[in-house]
Amino acid sequence: MANLLVKDAEKWFRKEDGQPVKILNRLSFEAREGCVTVLVGPSGCGKSTLLNSIVGLEKLDRGELLFVKNGEQRQRPLIGYVFQSPRLLPWKTVGDNIRLALKGAAVDRSEWERRVERYLEMVGLGEYANQYPLYLSGGQRQRVGLARALAIESDLVLMDEPFASVDELTARQLRQTTRHLCEELHRTVLFVTHNLPEAAYMSDFVVTLTRRPASLQEYVANPLGSPREWGPEIYNFAADLENKVTLKEETVL
Amino acid sequence: MASFQNIQPAISSEQGAAAHLQEPPFAARRFGGEITARIVPPLLAFGSVFIIWLLLYLIFPRLLPGPVSTFSEAIRLLEDGTFFFHMIQSLRRVFVGATVAMIFSVAVGIYMGTVVAGERFFQPLVVVGLTIPGLMWALIAVMLFGINEIAPYFAVAVTIFPMLVINIWAGVKALDKELIDMSHVFHFSPWMKISQVIIPQLVPNIFAATRYGLGLAWKVVVVVEMFGTSNGVGYQVMKAYQVFNMEGVIAWTLTFVAAMIVIEYGIINYVERRLTAWRPKIDVWRR
Fold first, then answer.
1. In this structure, how many other beta carbons lie within 10 angstroms of the beta carbon of residue A82?
2. Residue in A85, A104, A134 closest to B279 by CB
3. Confidence check: pLDDT of B14 > 80
4. pTM of this structure
5. Residue ranges per domain, chain B?
6. Domains of chain A with bracketed CATH
7. Which chain B residues are Cβ-neighbours of A79 within 8 angstroms?
8. Mean pLDDT, to the nearest integer, of B7-25?
9. Is the pLDDT of residue A252 over 50?
10. CA-CA distance, B171 to A220, in Å (whole number)?
11. Any idea of the CA torsion for A103, A106, A108, A111, to the nearest 10 degrees?
């Protein structure tokens, strides 16, 4: 069953000289409930624009975004978001950053402490609730961002290249934690990356996109089972994906 | 030819382990040393002013009052309570005027930084406002409102308003859009966006504006008090001037400056440190 249906999404931007540029071209796919759907496409093809449209930061020019739960269509629901940079409020402690997200999500106040503790424990930062973000490493901050997105317990979690700004070893640990949590918590995740081994490791389904304007190229089910380890089979599946997608930089129109 | 295996470490591994158990090098900077380093330079600065004043007094005894007699006058003002009564009057005027200016300037600064039409409307007014001297506002306020409390409030608020607006407007234009997008994604209410995301980013601008604004507000309030009120530090300075009591003028100035130092270091610095405790202290680039 789908949790998010993207139907014929179309988005235009205007360049500085006033010329219109098409970013999304009749893009359609679904993010299945309880699965990690990974969006893979060339840099600048419109992946982040799509995520921004899903959370309401941008508006599609044409097409629909349908949010479905238990077979029924819903208005835009609460959505967790892990950004490329952690986007934590540096003047708030780690715990307060999560509490503010819980407040925004209208979670009952009596529930806050339990969730802060639980999700910080899950990402391995149980001791850090009273620390300020600037005292943490980049990887730790990204873990806080992950805890914040999961703590609101939304139906859908978006992740926009969340590990692109950390070193490879930290990124591997974070992928492992994130994949494990998504499986354990059965969350619907839409994950954007242009790192093919990452896509192979994280995904249950992979949506490959064409160059700009982005439209659906392939919808691939990941043959690897769960739980999974970072090993040769990840690279083999990544090689399969490479044949299906062109990741070269888009020439600006 | 020496191989890498032949190169011995400068210290044995045991010595190395012992070295790790020692205190880190920066622990050598002791608490007492830190206090001395903070206090000695300003004391030297004040001491040098005192010595120059004393020398000038010894050279021109008829021109200047002596530092000792002036300090005695200042201590008398403090002891008999005159200073505190008049200082509180001046403080109240500055505080009320600055608060009114702050409320309006935060609102106008945020509006100018977020709405282009607002920027176009207020920018010329703010620039013109900056060019009008505080003394003119003091005169206008007394002529408009007469000798009452509204005049100093108005003069202070109107004088510092453009400067506060400029600072807050610049701060709003430099706001981190990513954090505002984050607050939208996580469904922050409008009040949460302003109080938790926007205002904290403006804190450095607000403090810079407050420091500069208060400096200006004191000058304006003293001028208004000189001819528009019957109490306050400015009124007392004027009274001393009218009987050519230079000791009195300087004693009032000194006590006034001392009060300003207490406000700057005791209150503003303290509040600023508390509000910016989230920033790691990095002094690497300073000597």
1. 25
2. A134
3. no
4. 0.75
5. 66-275
6. 1-70+188-253 (3.40.50.300)
7. 185
8. 53
9. no
10. 47
11. -60
